[in-house]
Amino acid sequence: MTRVETGAPPAAAPASAAALLRERARWSLFDLLFWAAALAAFFVFPLRLPLLTEIAILGLFALSIDLLLGYAGIVSLGHAAFFGAGAYAAGILAQHGWGEPISGLAAAGLVAAALGFATSFLVLRGSDLTRLMVTLGVAMMVLEAANKAAWLTGGADGLNGVVMDPVFGVFEFDLFGHTAYWYALAVLFLCFLAIRRIVNAPFGLVLRGIQGNALRMSAVGAPVNRHLVAVYTLAAGFAGIAGGLLAQTTQFVSLDVLNFQRSAEGLLVLIIGGSGVLYGGLVGAVAFKLMQEWLSNITTQYWQFWLGAALVLLVLFARGGLLGLARRFLRRRPARSERGGAA
């Protein structure tokens, strides 16, 4: 009998998958430059630290949306519900005497994750349009509940009396935003590492498969609903941490943290930077906030018009966001240089 060649051994596929995950998790020059620029911003723009802190918080919020949209294909119009839940959790704790920032931030993430887990079973049923309506409905219910529970949340007047203790008992929050920026940047970096680990693990590969074809992933034995519930809960938790950061650094919480505009802003930021790429939300947050600041200084009355026009142009001519545009530009440069060398 002749032996039939079957190709590579069965262990080759898992080995190649593991190599692919290791390659994706490897730090590049862009990683180092991005975080070095974030550190240098403290010294280059010492008078703009409150704005930089807002960028870090918005970037974390967009990063949590990207975990849903870019890797699991779930579009949410009500992600502000988790952002606001985290903000109120951290603010209420501080208002009642628990002003320790780290534990308050952990509580904010846990409260938001619990809300995400409780609502995930409703959100993940039906088609994409159904999910959109359910996420929006959940956010509206949470907003109205916070408005009616004025004895706890302050209602339309907002949550006052939020006093934070120094970070690690040493670094006090000051009016100039020095501690707030370092604190927000450190939390953003740690959450980024956690999300990077999640999406570059086998769990993240399954999410990408579900995004591509959920029926096929179910046919091969992947627990689709379990993975979607898990990623929805995780995304809610990270959004809650972002909300807790806002409450702790501003020491004030209002109903604005639960508005639809908050969710829309996070989606816009992700579209600007590019979804499905971890840095998309971060780059988009920088571009969105700087564009907003620049246009509002130029024209105080019509800056929203010009911001909308810029966003429309970006969507039309920069598919995949700013990072997608940068990737296409970098791919064309080697091709041009090769043609020039051949000539």
UniProtKB/TrEMBL annotation:
PANTHER family (alphabetical): ABC TRANSPORTER ATP-BINDING PROTEIN (PTHR30482:SF17), HIGH-AFFINITY BRANCHED-CHAIN AMINO ACID TRANSPORT SYSTEM PERMEASE (PTHR30482)
GO molecular function list: branched-chain amino acid transmembrane transporter activity
Pfam families assigned to the protein according to its UniProt record, in alphabetical order: BPD_transp_2 (PF02653)
Superkingdom assignment: Bacteria
Organism from which the protein derives: Propylenella binzhouense
Keywords: Cell membrane, Membrane, Transmembrane, Transmembrane helix
Bilayer-spanning residue ranges: 29-49, 55-74, 104-124, 180-199, 227-247, 267-291, 303-326
Gene Ontology terms: cellular component: plasma membrane
Cited InterPro entries: ABC_transp_permease (IPR001851), LivM-like (IPR043428)
Record's subcellular location: Cell membrane
UniProt-listed CDD domains: TM_PBP1_LivM_like
Main location: membrane
Name the record gives this protein: Branched-chain amino acid ABC transporter permease
Topology with respect to the bilayer: Multi-pass membrane protein
